Amino acid sequence: MNFENPLIVQGDKSLLLDVHAPLAEECRNALIPFAELEKSPEHLHTYKLSPLSLWNAASAGFSAQQAIDVLKKYARYDVPQSIIMWIYEISNRFGKLRLVPGPVREVDGGIEKYLYLLAGSIQVFKEIAANQSVKKYITEAPYEEPEISEQDKVQLSDAEKSYCFILKLTDRGTIKQLLLRAGWPVKDEVVLADGEPLDVSLSETTKTGKPLVIREYQKGAAKALIGNKGPGTGFGTIVLPCGSGKTIVGMTIMDMLKTSTLIITTNISAVHQWIEELLDKTNLTEDQIAEYSGENKEIKQVTVATYQVLTWRPDKDGPYPHFSIFHERPWGLIIYDEVHMLPAPVFRVVAELQAVRRVGLTATLVREDGCEGYVFSLVGPKRYDVPWKELERDKWIASAECIEVRVDLPSEKEIEYAVAGQREKHKIASQNSAKLKIVQEIIEQYPEDKILVIGQYLDQLDEIVKILGCPIITGKTPNAERDRIYADFKTDKIRVLVVSKVANFAIDLPDASLAIQVSGTFGSRQEEAQRLGRILRPKDRTSRFFTLITRNTVEEEFGSNRQKFLAEQGYSYKIVRYTDKESISEATLESDSFLGLDEPEVF
C-alpha cells in the first residue's frame, strides 16, 4: 500500500487514475498499451480493462505479466486477486486458437484451398464445436501435414494436432469475426501471398532537394507490421498521432515489400495528397500511379482510391460495382488510411482479402459504432502505438493547448431550447449565434497564426464566412477549387480557412497553428482527435485548439465525451467562462495545468 501512487484498481475492472499524484503522467503512459479511457473529469480519470484492449496488447507483444506489473507498480492499494487472474485468463486466450495452412483438394472438378483451425486444449475445442454460429463453417478433421515450403510451416504441439477443425480458405475472415465475437481471438499464422512485384523505393531526397529522413518510430512501426515476413506477420494496425507522418510509414512499408499496392483513403483531397507524397518521396513515376475516384477510374501498379467510390452503388439493395478493384490486380499490399473510418460494406470485402498483406493507419482505434473488433479481426490487431505526449516531447509533433470556451445561450433561444427534442437541442446549442463574435475575437487576438474554423452545420459556417470574408471548404466544394484553396493556405495567400467535417481526415495543412471548433458531431471522440490533429504538424510555436460550447446544454455533455481520447493522451482542457474579450486573452494554459496536474480553472 502506497498512498502516493496514482492508481486505484477496482474489482469491476475499472482503474481510477488520480491526476494530481506525482507519478500520474508516467502511469498514464504505462496504461496506454492495454487499457481504455472511459471518463476524464478533473481529479480522477477512469480507465477500463477489456478483452479487446488486452488482445491488442498481446498481439503487439505486451504480455499479461507486463500488464499486471504495471498495475502493481502504480497501485495505491493491493491489486485484487480476481483482476490478476482475469488478466491472465483473457490475455492467454490470444493464441489458443490458431489458423494454419491446410490441404488443397479437388472439389467438383476444381481446386479448393483449406485451412486448419487448431485448438490448444480439449475444453476450447469442445466450446468451439458447440458454437452454433461457427459450426456451419468448420468441420472436425484429423490434422495432416500440408505440402508447403519449410519456410511457411509453423510449429504445432501434439495437442493442437489432436484438436483440429478444417475450413475453406474463403471463410477465413468470417470465422475470425465470429470467433472474436464469441470471446476467442484467432492467431492467424497462414503465410500471406506475395503480390505483383514492383520496384518501389524511398528516395534519399525529396523533389525540392531536402534529405528524406525516416524517423525511428516510423521505421519501428513499419518493422512491427512486416516482421520476418513469415507466419503471423504482414497485417495489422498502426496507431500514430495526426501530424506524425503515417503516410511516411505507409511508404516505408511499400519500400520494404516492393509490391503492387492499393491505397484507400477518406476523400479526394487525401487521394491527391497521397499521390503527391509518393511522387515526392519515392522513385515512382506518374505512369505508375493511378487515381480511382468519382472523377477518375484508372488502375495501375499503385492505385489510390476513396472509401466513397467503393461504397457507391446505383441501387441501395444492389451490388457494389467498384468492389471489383480489389481483384483487378494481384495486390501485394492494401493500405487502409484512417482505418477507424472503414465503412461497414468494405468489411465484407476485407473479410475475403485475408491472404493479402494489409495495414490500417489511424490516430485512434476508437469507433463510435463499437466495431473496433472488426478492425482487429479483419484488418489486423494493433502492431504499434506511441503516446502523443512522447512525440511532442521529442518535437516530432507540435505542443498544443486546448481551451474550452463556454458561452451563454441567447435569452430569446432559451424557451425554444427547453421544449426541443434531443437532436434539435444539440443543433440549437451548436449554432449559438453568440459564437460568431467569439470567433472574430480569437482571430483578432492571434494575428500571427494560421487559423482553421471547423464546424458541423453549413448554415453556421456560411454565416462565419460572411463575417470573416474568407474561403470555405465543404463537401460541395469542387475538387479543383478545394485543392486550390488548400494550396493558397499552405503558401500564405490566406490566413483563415473555414472547413466543414470534410477536413477532419487525412488533410495535410502543416502551417495551421490554431483551430476554432464551433460545432461537432455529437460526442465523437475520434473527431476530436482528428480535429486537434489538423494543428499538430511540427512547428516552432505552440498550437491552440479552441472549442466553443454553449453553457448548460447538451453540448457540455457531448464535449466531455469528445475530450476522453485527448485526456488519455495527456491533454486537458482549460475551461473558460466567456464574459468579454479579456476572458479569452486569459485562456493561455500553464504547463502544469496543461499536463493535467492541476485542476482546471473556471473564469
In words, what does this structure look like?
The protein has 603 residues and is of the alpha/beta class. Helix 3 (64-74) runs antiparallel to helix 4 (81-91) and helix 8 (172-181) runs antiparallel to helix 15 (372-379). 36% of the residues lie in helices and 20% in strands. Strand 19 (472-473), helix 21 and strand 20 (496-499) form a beta-alpha-beta unit. Mean pLDDT is 86; it is low at 589-603. It is built from 26 helices and 23 strands. The relative contact order is 0.10. The strands form four sheets. A seven-stranded parallel beta sheet has the order 12-13-11-14-15-10-16, sandwiched between helices. A seven-stranded parallel beta sheet has the order 19-20-18-21-22-17-23, sandwiched between helices.
Number of strands: 23
Characterize the main sheet.
7 strands, parallel
Judging from the principal axes of the Cα atoms, what is the shape? globular
- Biggest sheet, spatial arrangement of strands: 12-13-11-14-15-10-16
The proportion of strand residues reads: 15-25%
Instruction: Please give the alpha-carbon distance between the first and last residues.
Output: 38 Å
Task: Count helical runs.
Answer: 26
Can you give the mean pLDDT? 86
Report the uncertain regions. 589-603
Radius of gyration: 25 Å
Proportion of helical residues: 25-40%
Query: Which structural class is indicated by helix and strand composition?
Result: alpha/beta
